[in-house]
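Worked problem 6 (solution included).
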Amino acid sequence: MLNLAMLLEDSAREVPERTAVVCEETRLSYAELNAATSQVAHGLVQAGIQKGDTVALSCQDVPSFVIAYYGILKAGAAVLPLNVLLKTREIAYHLTDGDAKAYFCQEGMPELPIGQLGYAAFQEVESCQHFFLITNTPDAPSSIPGATTLNMLMRDQPTTFETVATSPEDTAVILYTSGTTGKPKGAELTHLNMLLNARLSDTMYPRADHDVHLITLPLFHSFGQTVQMNAGIYNRATLVLLPRFSPDAALHLMEEENITIFAGVPTMYWAMLHYPRADQYDLQKIARNLRLACSGGAAMPVEVMLAFNE
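Solution. The predicted structure is:
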């Protein structure tokens, strides 16, 4: 048996009281995070989700993404993370092509109405049987009439779950291409793929006793999902989530949360370097704590890399 959710279960067993996820006022320990994912898994199984099914997920970098992601895996299903910027027609295509049986969708906000667009797509796809709304406030009622919320799915469910036995070659995650040369195509990644990618990301650099990641890369993308979320959970790290990047918010969290690992794209580094009020933060403290900075998505300009190092 090999299930990617074992990363979380092992960490919850080893460091149950350590903070696993931080986002604004929310702080979840590894024990609390593992319990929440078990409740999701129970809810999915009761809804009829079976081993080998696909469950889609549209969500920004908030704790609910992590909870739903590992809950889906525990239930033996494959996770289909979707770009939160997709429109209704595009979402419907992914739900249909990926043969999603259920769909977790964040409520969103007026400028990014993920929930409304996602629900409209869900209604167009007969093969997708369940829609679960991730409300902006966990215990809030559904803003979509008749939609089951994530909180409702989890309510009164047991906090322990016997993870479904999957094999190393079973599909764990389906990531879609951008579709620049045609329709987007789903790449099926196995539990072994994802586990080895997380282990490699963790072992490429010297380990620390307790790392703290600042995650602002979208978790629906392979970079943030593998290099930070899965590798961080594997390493028993604390994941500090920043749903929308700004240099001000990033520098604040680096100072406040004692960030040791940051991963971003070159434009994020450029924005922090040129932020006019950067000197209001304790940059020396940030530099002392930040032991690893990764960049991807595009070539890092040498001058930006050198300036950030300085």
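Discussion: The two ends are 47 Å apart (CA to CA).
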